[in-house]
Specification:
By secondary structure, this protein is mainly α. Helices cover 68% and strands 3% of the residues. It has two domains: 1-89 and 161-204, Multidrug-efflux Transporter Regulator, Chain: A, Domain 2 (Orthogonal Bundle); 93-152, no CATH class.
Length: 219
């Protein structure tokens, strides 16, 4: 395809495509003349991946370059390539020694194989610290274990659906799934709270009783 079709199909402006070409983020097309080249579906896939990393994940150019390098390096395992992208999704200060020890012990207790430098450990430590400032989790370690087990089941389903034949597609899947699915998980949790609360405490969800009355047959 020519540049015009690449722009149309990828939804990427010409100036942006040229910028990615200059920066080496997008591989060159096949030259057909001094100022012309043809492109294929791999260029569309790469542009979509860059867009996901830049727009969805909010990665900087250097981070995007690092992820693309990991994808293209066959000596890097798929696990490490995905990890490179995943590490860019979280930011925050490094763990202090006390938090590092606590998170290490927690991962050992859960029997989870997690890299000690994972930014998610810092996120978890800071979240637990904030909760403790208000008295801690209701239910304590037992509730945390329940959370962990539930999330592990979710993660098994998600990782099981990662495409393995195409490393770029795998990274796209992980980044989009991580960032865009998290609000879904939160919303479902809150809706489940409503359902279970109404069942346990016998409450009526506002707006449903009237609807149910209107469904009853008229006598």
């Amino acid at each position: 395809m020519r540049m015009a079709e690449l722009i149309e199909r990828s939804g990427t402006p010409l100036a942006t495509v040229k910028y990615y070409l200059r920066e080496g983020l997008l591989h060159p097309g096949v030259a057909t003349a001094a100022t012309r080249a043809t492109y294929d579906d791999s260029h569309i896939a790469r542009l979509r991946l860059i867009r996901v990393l830049a727009e969805v994940a909010g990665m900087r150019l250097a981070q995007i370059r690092g992820v693309l390098t990991a994808i293209e390096d066959d000596s890097v395992s798929l696990h490490d390539a995905l990890g490179c992208a995943h590490r860019c999704l979280a930011a925050g200060p490094a763990l202090d020694e006390a938090a590092r020890v606590e998170m290490t012990e927690l991962m050992h207790t859960l029997d989870w194989n997690v890299a000690p430098q994972s930014p998610a450990l810092g996120e978890l430590a800071r979240a637990l610290t904030a909760i403790r400032s208000f008295g801690g989790l209701v239910g304590g370690a037992e509730v945390l274990q329940t959370y962990a087990e539930a999330m592990h089941q979710v993660a098994e389903a998600e990782v099981g659906s990662v495409p393995t034949a195409d490393r770029a597609a795998a990274v796209t899947h992980v980044v989009v799934g991580t960032l865009l699915a998290e609000p879904v998980l939160l919303a479902l949790r809150r809706l489940a709270h409503q359902d279970i609360s109404s069942r346990r405490f016998g409450g009526q969800i506002a707006g449903t009783e009237g609807a149910r009355r209107s469904e009853r047959p008229q006598t």
